[in-house]
Amino acid sequence: MFFIYSRLKDSSLDVKFVTNTTKESKNRLHERIHRLGFNIQKNEIFTSLTAARNLVDEQKLRPMLLLEDEALEDFEGISQENLNSVVVGLAPGCFNYEKLNVAFRLLMQGYPLIAVHKARYYKRPDGLALGPGGFVSGLEFATGTTATIVGKPQEAFFLSALKTVNCKPCEAVMIGDDLTDDVEGANNIGMKSILVKTGKYREGDDKKVDPFHSAVCSDIKSAVDLLLNEWMH
């Protein structure tokens, strides 16, 4: 993986790592990546937590944070008094009746619901696991509220990430393992995309991609080969 990252950095391309990871703050994620031996710069990472914090600041919200403790750093300085909104991320430790009921009561007062993302599932070492999407949908159903979703595959998420590198959608390529959040999300704003058959990839996903805007590769190395050797020429 380090060699692949070096190839991208040595090319003329700007690189941005975009992720819906909400289990930990951007600082913790960056530190973990460094411990694995990847010299990725912090400003090369754009997370859905960053997008959520930006929205909270813009709307001057005081949200109930359904987030794991490791992610709370990204919301430092946000008041937890007189709550007037709910933010939901991937937080298995928070998805219990008591906490969800507090969120329910806030939403029943007309306060907004912000979903850091609405993924149906994610990949753990022991297999696929339930994502936050089902819990967000449950709160929407119970309260009649429609959540504002800030992570992939939302258009605003991709556009915000591209803005940090002064890049237009038609000039960018998304490489990812999630058909909906990565490939279709990127395609919807005019980006090309490459689906890799690793991680969250499910058998048959490759049959669903748009062949005019997307490609399918066996892994990240093959995807970078395609990008650098064919699509850039």
Task: Describe, in plain words, how this protein is organized in 3D.
The chain has 233 residues and is α/β, with parallel strands linked by helices. It contains eight helices and eleven strands. It has a four-stranded parallel beta sheet with strand order 3-4-5-8, with helices on one face. The model has no long low-confidence stretch (mean pLDDT 93).
Features:
233 residues; alpha/beta; four-stranded parallel β-sheet; three-stranded parallel β-sheet; 8 helices; 36% helix; 17% strand
Produce a short descriptive summary:
The chain is an alpha/beta fold and 233 residues long. It is 36% helix and 17% strand.
Number of helices: 8
- Major sheet attributes: 4 strands, parallel
The proportion of residues forming helix, as a percent range, comes to 25-40%
**Integer-rounded radius of gyration:** 18 Å
Total strands: 11
Shape: globular
The separation of the N and C termini measures: 23 Å
What structural class is derived from the secondary structure elements? alpha/beta
Order of helices and strands: HEHEHEEHEEEHEHEHEEH
Question: β content, as a range?
Answer: 15-25%
* Average pLDDT over all residues: 93
| Unreliable stretches | none
Q: Reading side by side through the largest sheet, how are the strands ordered?
A: 3-4-5-8
How would you summarize the topology of this molecule?
Layout: H1 2-10, E1 17-19, H2 26-35, E2 45-47, H3 48-58, E3 63-66, E4 85-88, H4 97-108, E5 113-115, E6 121-124, E7 127-130, H5 133-143, E8 148-149, H6 155-163, E9 173-176, H7 179-187, E10 192-196, E11 214-217, H8 220-231
Parallel strand pairs: 1-2, 3-4, 4-5, 5-8, 9-10, 10-11
Antiparallel strand pairs: 6-7
